[in-house]
């Protein structure tokens, strides 16, 4: 999957192609977050951006006859145009998506390349959309067939609005075409520690409505409607929603948690990172550190837990409760608030997730994290002391990354995106090496200056 960017935040122009593990690096304030959030938004809302509305004749036939058959191959023939229209639609909505001033993204373009992204019309598909007690749309496609059958069931005196009918059909067609090819994305924003701290106070819609009702002599419906709009970029709002719904979400099981033995290596490194677990009690989230010998077991409300625990909260939620096979996990600065030792463990977690089929995209400033990922790439080579080195470092086979699994990009101060070479020696991030060399040189100059008196 490849994305092209023009005038998105600090970035004038550039491309990013997703791999199993995609890294976006660069100094502060060069647009890494804008780029990663834009990719998340496009993939998350991809089906809604695609317009598969039926013709007037098809809608009439569905309403009058109660059934309709659609040959899905017609969408393959015009797929590039559908993608182009979706990209234009998304680009126009970037301002609303980021909750930015009207003119901030007026020249921005985010384009998705259809190259290498194929429709899959061979799988079985069944879906039912209900509109009331008896009104529903039934979608059915047999495996290996290219025809989607639609059946409409309504009462004689009930007429569904054509716009709603068309929207539901368009969404079902998108589900049928992309459910097996499009990864389900989950984003972990850099604002996650603040969200974990203030998640109960961040219900801005409710607070604004209460404020209006208590302070106004007359209720203004327009004011109430405006107050219900999110004040945050959509990825941040998505994180707020997930944390607020933790009690319900924690009752689920991801495919990882459902197969604990098979994915034991994932849960072990996550537990090693956390040193405990999360639990919901009376709609409040608590962190429970692993019990130490001769010490009482404690439960800490997450809002007073350490910054590292708050930083890991959403990652733990995803791994245990939400992860889908062939999902896409996007983390803005996975190293946030983590000690260097835990950054090394984070590299193991990311590599192990990649090797069970979850695509991962990160933005990072961390030399530690990059170096640890490089170590796992270099271990894809065969050499004499490999086994002893892995054993000494506690690295297992599931930590190893092949060079072709990784793509890296550098956002630079010249407002561009450049691809970084990834080979058997890892990611060629010379920017980090030069900064470390400069720092070491300065340290040596100061040390010898002191010694010389």
Task: State the main characteristics.
single chain; about 450 residues; alpha+beta; six-stranded mixed beta sheet; four-stranded antiparallel beta sheet; about 45% helix; globular
Word description of this protein:
The protein has 453 residues and is of the alpha+beta class. It has a domain at 199-233 and 243-320. It is 43% helix and 20% strand. It is built from 19 helices and 18 strands. The strands form 5 sheets. The chain has a 6-stranded mixed sheet with strand order 9-13-14-3-15-16, with helices on both faces. Strands 4-8-7-6 form a 4-stranded antiparallel sheet. A 3-stranded antiparallel sheet has the order 2-1-5. Helix 8 (192-198) packs across helix 15 (307-322). It is globular and about 95 Å long. The protein starts with a strand and ends with a helix. The relative contact order is 0.14. Mean pLDDT is 86; it is low at 209-213 and 222-229.
Q: Judging from the principal axes of the Cα atoms, what is the shape?
A: globular
pLDDT < 50 stretches: 209-213, 222-229
N-C termini distance: 59 Å
Mean pLDDT: 86
Structural class: alpha+beta
How many helices? The count is 19
| Strand order in the largest sheet | 9-13-14-3-15-16
Bin the helical content.
40-55%
**Strand fraction:** 15-25%
Radius of gyration: 25 Å
- Number of strand elements: 18
Main beta sheet strand tally, sense and closure: 6 strands, mixed
